[in-house]
Amino acid sequence: MSSQPNDKPEILVIDDSKVIRSAAVKMLGDEYIVHQASDGMAGWEVLQGNTAISVVFTDMQMPEMSGLELLANIRESEDEHIANLPVIMITGQGDSEETKQEVFDRGATDFIAKPFGSIDLLSRARAYAQLNRKVAELEQQTGHDKLTGLFNANSLEEQGEKALSFALRHRLNISTVYLEIDGFQNLFLEQGKAVAQQIIVAVAKRLAGVLRTEDVAARMGVAKFAVLLPLTNSTHAKIVVDRIRESINKLVFDTGKEKLRIVLAAGMTCPELGGEVKYADMMVQADIALKRALAKAGDKIASYVEETNEVIELQPAATEDDLKRAFELILEENYFKIERDHMELLMKRLAPFLAYVEDLEDEDKPNDDTFD
């Protein structure tokens, strides 16, 4: 995943024609970092692994996954950065006006026709990359998540550094908790973006309502939150976490077809304070604890305890329902919808079967020592 700041904006060009991709790289390469993909499925994987991409150029007609299917994935993504990306469709002579209108109605930002010139390509890249960057900068400056109104990750770290500095000077306790809606990916796929966003907003509102005035709540990811708890030791942090989870786990969401309940997993840290500790370290610790909580079968809550002589192997945060859904997606050939966090456990479950198949193949092979 791209996380290093870069002077050049990053652009993704998706086309099954190597000639078209090479032409785009030649035209854009001086001003942009240009990523390439040969079809929609490969492009979708690139988008999920690189948060720095600011504009997408994609052909409409491609194997594996068409431009229309890719556009639907982008606009319906649970990741707001991906869902809001500018998408410029590359059209060909065989694409009718009705087709173009349909794609535009489904959320395409703009069109560019083959064969395109460098001026056409650069003008669109410049316009939409600049717009995307300005929107991102504005969101960072406001310090708040636009969907929930909570602090964003940057603001949490800023507030955390101040609170940690105060705690170090006065030898006070400080705790941080990471929270995540368990199984949110499946919920999003089954219920759709509108219901998923309603749940996120309701959770954020309930979270803000149960905290003290001095506490700080932030949205860290799609269904991931964080709480900074000044003047709070591990025992009291556990009390706060129990109160938060009890309040949120009671929520019932009526979709009109069914009533949904959610489970909130929690990972917390209250480190021994020393001169070298940074709030970024606490954020990492809370994230590790959250991963442990998500991997648990029972009560999904965990505390980070640093053991210098112990290596802890984290299990993938996948339930039996997650694995069943993954197998269904395999049969449907929708491999790109399988969560990457579930891949490792999925392969472990498949390993005995693959070994069995390999043994059968070995039995069917002719024995070199046998003669007619």
Please outline the helices and strands.
Blueprint: E1 10-14, H1 18-28, E2 33-37, H2 40-49, E3 53-59, H3 67-75, H4 80-83, E4 87-91, H5 97-105, E5 110-113, H6 118-142, H7 153-170, E6 174-181, H8 184-191, H9 193-210, E7 216-219, E8 224-230, H10 234-249, E9 252-254, E10 259-261, E11 264-269, H11 279-295, E12 301-303, H12 320-331, H13 340-364
Parallel strand pairs: 1-2, 1-3, 3-4, 4-5, 11-12
Antiparallel strand pairs: 6-8, 6-11, 7-8, 9-10
Description:
The protein is globular and about 70 Å long. About 50% of the residues lie in helices and about 15% in strands. The protein contains 13 helices and twelve strands. The protein folds into three domains: about 130 residues, Response regulator (Rossmann fold, 3-Layer(aba) Sandwich), CATH 3.40.50; about 160 residues, 2-Layer Sandwich (Alpha-Beta Plaits); about 45 residues, no CATH class. The N and C termini lie far apart (about 60 Å). The strands form three sheets. The chain has a five-stranded parallel beta sheet, sandwiched between helices. A five-stranded mixed beta sheet has the order 7-8-6-11-12, with helices on both faces. It is an alpha/beta fold and about 375 residues long. The longest helix has 25 residues. The relative contact order is 0.08. The N terminus and C terminus are likely disordered.
List unreliable stretches of 5+ residues: 1-5, 306-317, 368-372
Kindly report the spatial arrangement of strands forming the biggest sheet.
2-1-3-4-5
Structural class: alpha/beta
Order of helices and strands: EHEHEHHEHEHHEHHEEHEEEHEHH
The number of helices is 13
Taking the alpha carbons of the first and last residues, their distance comes to 59 Å
What do we call the CATH homologous superfamily of the largest domain? Reverse transcriptase/Diguanylate cyclase domain
Please indicate the percent range of residues in DSSP E strands (runs of 2 or more).
15-25%
**If you average the pLDDT, what whole number results?**
82
Number of strands: 12
CATH T-level topology of the largest domain: Alpha-Beta Plaits
Number of domains: 3
Inertia-based shape = globular
CATH class of the largest domain: Alpha Beta
The share of residues in helices is 40-55%
Q: What's the gyration radius in Å?
A: 24 Å
Main β-sheet description: 5 strands, parallel
What is the correct CATH architecture of the largest domain?
2-Layer Sandwich
